[in-house]
Amino acid sequence: MSACRGSMALESVFRAARSEGRAVLIPYLTLGHPTLERSLTLASSVIEAGADVLELGIPFSDPLADGPAIQHATQTALEQGASVAACLNLAARLRARHEKTPLLFMGYLNPILAYGLERFCDACVSAGVDGLIVPDMPPEEGGAIEVRCRAAGLALVYLLAPNTPEERARMICSRSRGYVYLVSVAGTTGARDRLPPGLSGFVERVRGLTDRPLAVGFGISTPEHAAAVARIADGVIVGSAVVRRCESETAESDVASFVSTLRAAVGRPAGGGPA
User: Fold this and answer.
1) What pLDDT, in 10s, does the model give residues 66-86?
2) Cα(10)–Cα(130) distance, rounded to whole angstroms?
3) How far, in Å, CA of 135 to CA of 66, rounded?
4) pTM above the 0.70 mark?
5) Do β-strands 214-217 and 103-106 pair in parallel, antiparallel, or remain unpaired?
6) Is-catalytic flag, 254?
7) In this predicted model, what pLDDT tens digit does every residue of 141-177 receive, in sequence order?
8) What domains, with CATH codes, occur in the chain?
9) DSSP track, 100-155
10) Is the peptide bond before 165 cis (omega within 30 degrees of 0)?
11) Which of 2, 119, 146, 273 has its CA at 20 to 30 Å from residue 109's CA atom?
12) How far is CA 129 from CA 34, 43, 93, 114, 118, in A?
């Protein structure tokens, strides 16, 4: 794998979406929820319904960035035996079904270090994973994992909060690969009734600091939210609102229908959205 393989895969998706006049849709699912096998079929359903990129959550017992829906999914997944090794296996099986869609692991630092950093990055490559999001790892402490990701060809995507000072925001943007994950609120994940009022200004501020694609997550709960974010950002990340639909008997069709409406919503009107 080339040292820039993961970044190139993500950048290609953003370029293609830009040429089509729309934003990139990035759903999130917790691996192992509601069971190991169903999380695999649900992930396939999400990709087939129109996901451009898929974030796959590795369960951890202390998911400090996550709200109630993903906390519940994580606990359920752990009870189902969703270890790091099990998640790698599921990702490999998903990659065998879907060759082109970029896959990102979103997981906390403790399980990665417990598995072994070099071993984990190499296993991600073998499984066909394109990159990592590690929400509890600040870039000031990310040197070792950045080195391993570069060596393995994995894109390491950093999160950027709305209250981040400009100098630090520049640093985060410069070190994030593939895109920059903009956290819409200074809080945890979770469905919300409305988007934060300062979101447009936040995206505009970061837009002035980098030419990397900007994807917004946390609290995007409806197609209307997705449409509004798509008009100001390059990517739309939807987690809790997808995860909440994963436990019913008809979860595969429910999730696919919801993701299809999100995919339709992220198309921009002519002349809309960022250049």
Assistant:
1) 678 888 999 999 999 999 999
2) 8
3) 10
4) yes
5) unpaired
6) no
7) 999 999 999 999 999 999 999 999 999 999 999 999 9
8) 5-265 (3.20.20.70)
9) SS-EEEE--HHHHHHH-HHHHHHHHHHHT--EEE-TT--GGG-HHHHHHHHHHT-E
10) no
11) 2
12) 22, 14, 11, 19, 14
**Contact between 199 and 230 (Cβ < 8 Å):** no
CA distances from 183 to 113, 163, 186, 188 (A): 24, 10, 7, 9
Close Cβ partners of 184 (under 8 Å, ≥ 6 residues apart) = 162, 195, 196, 199, 202, 216, 217, 218, 219, 220, 229
pLDDT digits (tens, 9 = 90+) for 231-271: 999 999 999 999 999 988 999 999 999 999 999 999 965 33
Q: Virtual CA dihedral for 52, 225, 159, 113, nearest 10 degrees? A: -60
Which of 11, 52, 66, 234 is catalytic? The answer is 66
Task: Look up tokens 């709200």; give the residue.
Answer: 67
Question: Which residue in 11, 20, 37, 55 is the catalytic one?
Answer: 55
126 - beta bridge partners?
Answer: none
